TrEMBL record:
GO terms for cellular component: plasma membrane. It comes from Stakelama pacifica. It is an enzyme of class 2 (transferase). The keyword Cell inner membrane does not apply. The gene is ctaB. GO terms for biological process: heme O biosynthetic process. It is a multi-pass membrane protein. This is Protoheme IX farnesyltransferase. The lineage of its organism: Bacteria, Pseudomonadati, Pseudomonadota, Alphaproteobacteria, Sphingomonadales.
Length: 303
């Protein structure tokens, strides 16, 4: 039988398919923010152990991504941007994805505890469990608040990095957590505005599908305000130096301007939603530059 014409027959999975399960594009930001949390910690960590800690963060994120795709294979098959993933495309069976995700999760947590400490391992474990059980299984299909509450899952990495180096969690890593937590809604809602039909077809209750574009745009503007305040807070509270403070003010000014443009406009059919795409693209750059400035500030100012 020709497997290319029978979607119910799984082709033998390749290493590329297992790599795709880990969502490598998403993992880059996860690894980067985790690395920044580790580098700005007041305690230095052995480079080998530090590398191992970042590897564990990557593996944990990959495990969460694999388990997410295992559970959501039916949704992925209904959306254009995810239909080519290994499971909906028929290149892998669900059991293989489940075993891969669970095995990767256990390995990452155990290795983290052996290489660093129990606190870092516990936070890593919490991040995986939160993403899989709270966001993927509980929230994603049930409420338009899925991104708001579920945003915590992606906010753990800098806390994990900090904990790996210090064995504790203090105010600065909690603020870094809060930045990503508040950044997630405007970031994903900007995306959801120009892929609204995908979510609607899959039956995912994203905010633009349930409440409409106008409400979504207003929410983007509203969430940008506390996000900017929390992003500037580390400098305002004396936890960082002027390098981070200047970068935070400038980056948040640009983010707020783009968010205001999205919040105040009405989309016109066929206009390409350029402002929404600009905000989504900049939001990714924003987080890279903000956390990069944090590390630069730590190395130059030593605050």
């Amino acid at each position: 039988m020709n497997t290319m014409t029978n979607p119910n027959v799984s082709l033998p999975a390749e290493w590329r398919d297992f790599l795709a399960l880990t969502k490598p594009k998403v993992m880059r930001l996860v690894v980067f923010t985790g690395l920044c949390g580790l580098l700005v910690a007041p305690q230095a960590i052995n480079p080998v152990l530090g590398f191992t800690a970042i590897l564990c963060i990557a593996l944990g994120a990959g495990a969460a991504g694999a388990l997410n795709q295992w559970y959501e294979s039916d949704l992925d098959s209904k959306m254009k941007r995810t239909a080519g993933r290994p499971l909906p495309a028929g290149r892998m069976d669900r059991q293989s994805a489940l075993h891969f995700g669970v095995g990767l999760a256990f390995f990452s947590v155990i290795l983290m505890e052996l290489a660093t400490n129990m606190v870092a391992a516990a936070v890593l474990s919490a991040s995986i469990l939160f993403y899989v059980f709270i966001y993927t299984i509980w929230l994603k299909r049930r409420t338009p608040q899925n991104i708001v509450i579920g945003g915590a899952a992606g906010a753990f990495p800098p806390v994990i990095g900090w904990a790996a180096a210090t064995g504790n969690v203090t105010l600065l890593p909690l603020l870094l957590f809060a930045i990503i937590f508040l950044w997630t809604p405007p970031h994903f809602w900007a995306l959801s505005l120009f892929v609204k039909s995908d979510y609607a077809n899959a039956g995912v209750p994203m905010l633009p599908v349930v409440a409409g574009e106008r409400v979504t745009r207003h929410q983007i503007g509203l969430y940008t305000i506390p996000m900017a305040a929390v992003a500037i807070a580390p400098w305002a509270l004396g936890l960082t130096g002027w390098v981070y403070g200047a970068a935070a003010i400038a980056l948040n000014a640009v983010f707020a301007a783009l968010a205001a443009r999205v919040s105040l406009r009405r989309s016109i059919p066929g206009d390409g939603m350029k402002p929404e795409k600009q905000l989504f693209a900049f939001s990714i750059l924003y987080l890279f530059l903000l956390f990069g400035a944090l590390v630069l500030d730590h190395w130059t100012i030593g605050a």
